[in-house]
Amino acid sequence: MAELLQLAALLVLLTVAAGLLRILRGPGAADRVMAAQLLGTGGIAVLVLLAAATATPALLDAALTLALLAAFAAVALVVAAPGRASRR
Amino acid sequence: MSLLLDGFTLVAVFAGILFFVAGTAGLLRFPDTSSRLHALTKADHLGLGLIVLGLLPQAGGVLPALKLLVIWALALLAGATVGPLIARLAREEDAPP
Amino acid sequence: MAAAGAPPRGPTLAAAARGAAFLGLWVVLAGPAPDGLVVGLLAAGFATWASLRLMPPLPWRPRPGALLLLVLRFPWQALRAGTEVALLALDPRRRPHPGMLAWTPRLKAGRAQDAFLAYASLLPGTLPAGPLDGGAIAIHALDSRTPVGEAMTQEEARFAQAIGADG
What is the pTM of this model? Predict the structure, then answer.
């Protein structure tokens, strides 16, 4: 069971990495803000899988923090994106 | 019973991975930024939901299981709030005023 | 957005409900150990104070039946939304027909409308993309050949009824 869950975590990680390579190319800021979202969702998935696979409950706290940070990061990036100064 | 629950876990977790794969495929294939955002907000959140659902029997108690659900709810709330913001940014970048 | 008509439920009740919810969240996150509970009480109190300042209670009257229906329908909707995108992304013969349309909400601009738009971003095929001139909302549709506006209006009616913001 633990090995299979670790394999699952690895698969999610590889998938997220492939998506990240695409989004970071842009073209616009919106694509790159999506990277924060993707890292958030995918990172949480990897962490909860590893928490179960390795019986390390502390990883759940890391996943929780990532959920909070990804939300704040995305909002901050949207607000600060170039060309947004004209509107609130 | 434990075998049954383990089976449930594996089915749900690997179904979740399938949606992560589909989300990434969408990111690679879809032609415009907003469509890629659809792939991200819908496929990936369903993937995370299925993985969390699958891990619930492995959490080892009611409180840890609830904690998993809180993490998922938070990710969902964040995704739902941020999705329209990024879509708006993408629209403004597409058509500069 | 001062809604007229609905009797105020009183800030005390709202504060008590939010405080209890925050304390419950604390117990889930930090565990029920009694020596941590003091910190939990402090944290819940502070969170309640902050939430009342940032999000003053609104006179919404959630209808339990409609709300339950909405919550129960959500996993099904999320499954449909995810499956739709997944099939579109994985089937090489298919591709999206994206389009942007202007949709006019019934809910007045404010927290109820914002909440609905966030919810709508998780529904199949639609993604709100910010306000347009004249109170309309831009909606990005993954398949613009489908009646997206009608679907949004239907969902909005369900949502408004559930949270009781339609009065």
Answer: 0.85
